[in-house]
Design a protein that fits this description.
single chain; 255 residues; alpha/beta; Rossmann fold; six-stranded parallel beta sheet; binds flavin mononucleotide
Length: 255
């Protein structure tokens, strides 16, 4: 995907504008702009985005409250909550969505999970007839830029903090469900404020170097590999992976 003339949405989930994660998001935006892209933002904490789905967001919520039916009814009546509609419009406009967030308790911060819960609107951005290979967000790409406090060994295969690629898989699969292609995540490990002296200086050097490399990655995003997912045809009519189909992840392993 040549970014020239494309739209890049930066989704930032971090409460501190001076954090490395937020600075990294600005570096993505600068690199995308330099490559000719139009950049739009969802700085979730700065927006005060409410990530908690519930009936109070809807003009006429179904009772008992069913979030999928609430989405559908709101789409049909043109009463999708304003904040969720604004985000859905950004998603619809974006060719590439770059997510920036730290790992918090082995997953994304809750504000990002809730953004997906509320803004991937059922009946608009996905429905039962449009998911996976027929997803409504086909043609769009996503990239996760993620910091961890733990080091690279701890976050790798066999590491005691769990393989971050696995921790991020449900998030990637959420986007795949909606039809998107998802790049392999970019990970920066060992980011925290508890280093002192020489170690703190070494971290600064490492982080500055990472930001310089990052501009090239964004500019040449096409060269960055995609996470492999199964095609719809890899599953039988019951939804089980066919014996001859590849298993790309322990989340969908051969029975
Ligand atoms: C609530 C919370 C939970 C965290 N859980 C993890 C974790 O599961 N794994 C990990 O490696 N780091 C964890 N951390 C550390 C953060 O990932 C780390 O502080 C962050 O990536 C640093 O980037 P920043 O300076 O941009 O915030 C956690 C931090 C917080 C605040």
């Amino acid at each position: 995907m040549d970014l020239d003339g494309r739209t890049v949405l930066i989704v930032l989930a971090h409460p501190e504008p001076a954090s490395f994660t937020a600075g990294w998001a600005r570096a993505s935006a600068d690199a995308a702009r330099a490559a000719g892209a139009r950049v739009i933002w969802s700085d979730l904490n700065a927006m005060g985005f409410d990530p908690v789905e519930g009936p109070r967001h809807y003009r006429t919520p179904p009772a008992p409250f069913d979030p999928l039916k609430a989405h559908e009814a709101a789409v049909a009546s043109g009463t999708v909550p304003t904040d969720a509609q604004a985000e859905a419009d950004k998603i619809a406009a974006a060719d590439l969505i770059v997510f920036h967030f730290p790992i918090w308790w082995f997953g994304p911060p809750a504000i990002l999970k809730g953004w997906l819960d509320r803004c991937l609107i059922h009946g608009a951005l996905h429905d039962v007839d449009h998911r996976f290979d027929t997803g409504r967000l086909r043609g769009k790409r996503a990239l996760f830029c993620v910091t961890t406090g733990a080091n690279a060994v701890e976050c790798g295969p066999g590491g005691k903090e769990g393989d971050v690629h696995l921790l991020l898989w449900p998030l990637a699969y959420t986007l795949r469900y909606c039809g998107m292609a998802v790049h392999e995540p970019v990970l920066i490990h060992g980011v925290h404020g508890y280093f002192e002296g020489a170690e703190e200086a070494a971290l600064e050097v490492r982080l500055s170097a990472a930001l310089e490399d990052h501009a090239r990655l964004i500019r040449e995003i096409d060269r960055h590999p995609l996470i492999p997912f199964n095609a719809d045809t890899d599953f039988d009519e019951t939804g089980r992976l066919r014996p001859d189909a590849p298993s790309h992840s322990p989340f969908i392993r051969r029975p």
